[in-house]
Amino acid sequence: MSKFAAVIFSTLNPKFLAIVRAFKNTSGKITAQHIGGGSRRHYRIIDFKRKKDNIPAKVASIEYDPNRSARIALLHYVDGEKRYILAPDKLQVGQTVMSGNKVEPEIGNCMTLKNIPLGLDIHNIELRVGQGGQLVRSAGGVAKLLAKEGNYAHIVLPSGEVRKVFDGCRATIGQLGNLDHSNIRLGKAGRNRWKGIRPRVRGVAQNPVAHPLGGGEGRSGGGRHPCSRTGLLAKGGKTRKKKAISNRLIIRRRRIGARGNL
């Protein structure tokens, strides 16, 4: 921190330095519903770009990350640098991984889509070159490389959507670990509170000032189609922009109401 910044922080009123809780702004208005409290978390900086090419790294440990559902792996590079990456399934401590265009397509290695053989499982997929992985980053996530056409690769995503991605973008080989994450039973409401998730009140049980379905005498039905607090339709209402630029990159739409099977 610079001397100028230190002076500014020292002159601030203490209330501006307090931790913001329950996702309220300075006027006390709730800006994010059903979020607040929970255990404090240290954020782990994850290397989604995998730009350290042709330098081998050894997996030192597989660790828990409170900020995501997938596990993370601590890498020790031969030049002394340490980085975290998303841990694929079957990645073992002591294993060596590497990124680059001339590496072997093995679990944990990162390479461009043009160099990945067809049919392999991949994750942490870039949408733009050099931007870092954005697709398929949660526990158990896996996509599959179907085909290559021109400068684009065809990828089937976990939702069942088939999408074209520029073949200069990078992806990591393998399926993400912690496959049983979706089978976890919390057991009690307190575990949700530890995660920072507060109770969710039904819209029809709220006041008319707080929700479009609120108000009425007795147990009313709301008087309109189910919707969110801001009026977005629930139960299948389309919210995607009809003129989105990325529409031309979608070959097959995702399956509605169920996860896609690869």
TrEMBL record:
One Pfam entry name: Ribosomal_L2_N
InterPro entries, sorted: NA-bd_OB-fold, Rib_uL2_dom2, Ribosomal_uL2, Ribosomal_uL2_bac/org-type, Ribosomal_uL2_C, Ribosomal_uL2_dom3, Ribosomal_uL2_RNA-bd_dom, Translation_prot_SH3-like_sf
UniProt GO BP: cytoplasmic translation
Ranges of Gly residues composition bias in the record: 213-224
Keyword line: Ribonucleoprotein, Ribosomal protein
Keyword Ribosomal protein found: yes
Domain spans labelled Large ribosomal subunit protein uL2 RNA-binding: 24-99
A Gene Ontology molecular function term of the record: structural constituent of ribosome
GO CC annotation: large ribosomal subunit
Family: Belongs to the universal ribosomal protein uL2 family.
Name of the protein this chain belongs to: Large ribosomal subunit protein uL2
Organism expressing this protein natively: uncultured planctomycete Rifle_16ft_4_minimus_36480
